[in-house]
Fold this sequence. Notes:
alpha+beta; 2 domains; 22 strands; globular
Amino acid sequence: MKSKFTKALALLLAVLTLGYIVSVGAYAAGTNTAAKSTTHALVLTSEATAVAIGRTIQMTAKVSNVDKQPTITWSSSDASIASVDSNGAVKGKAVGKVIIKASAKVDGKTVTGEFAIDVIKNEKPIQNYLVNHQVLSYQYSYVDDYYYTNDKKAWQKHFGFGKIYDIASPYLLLEYDYIRIFFTYENKDWMIQFWKGQYGMIFYGGEVGVYNRAHSEEGVNDWTFYGCAKEEDWLAMDMTLYHQNLDGEYVREFTREYDKYWWCTGFKNGHLREEEPADELRLAGRITFKSEEMAQIVYDGLLECGFKKGKKADHTAIDTVYKDGKDLHYSWQNISEAESTMAIKVVGGAAVTAVLLPLFAPIMIPYAGFFLLMCGIASLIV
């Protein structure tokens, strides 16, 4: 009996010992694997995304997950457009776009990074200033060459929005298509609005705005106002504007990167061939809502506006919306709720303008003032 007990105990000890050895081995193997799988990335930054001919900008490169930074090797995709020296200084030589490349040796392997630089004919002091500073809450991006709202700090957020703004807008040189979705969610009344069209004499672009207010049983009319969504109600989204060229092809003008916004905007220098309707513009993107329920409500609202059900996220599919969980992917081109104002402007535009401007100018200035200002600036620098 004792012999059987001793054998059983010995067997148990052997199993436990083997298990311990295996677990320690697995831990060691896992530790080694983790150490070997440490990744290194070479990240490039630049003090600007554009440089004028004859001018120089400084770029930097850093490798992640290293105790000491390795030697960086720099190169340009086309040295006749822009050259780069051994310290990362980029000098503009001819108008065009180049890719500045950097590489480094880390643990016997080569890591690389790239950064696109535009070489422009003349320096643009206004744009250079607006890259890092706000003017009426607007800034400029050399990437895709467009203006946008810095909605994170925009003072316009204190004004809210209502349908009456859109009715008055043509008399302040704003001609755009728009669509709206009204709904109630989490005991708040919401309005999500999309715009695209002509802003002033030399800008065209697009917008997506998120607005809400405390729930009310009263209906919505032209004088109903919504507040700009507070931070807890901002929605993550991206937005791309396409413009139809003379060949009929829709070309990407700019993309606002995926982030949280209450007012996502973008505006390009230029004038549409036909302001009303603005069919030569296509606005496309993705919006992530708070829940699938909220996404479904807005999805149904867009279908009621005339959108078709999309089978996938496709920016080339005209006037479609595709739902993927909490995400809605849309492509908007021809649908518009905007009333035609051409007849009014031709027949009684002067009289109507004289009446409306004193009433609505104080309200619309926060939205239209920038465009009028930029028209004057652009006439000097474009």
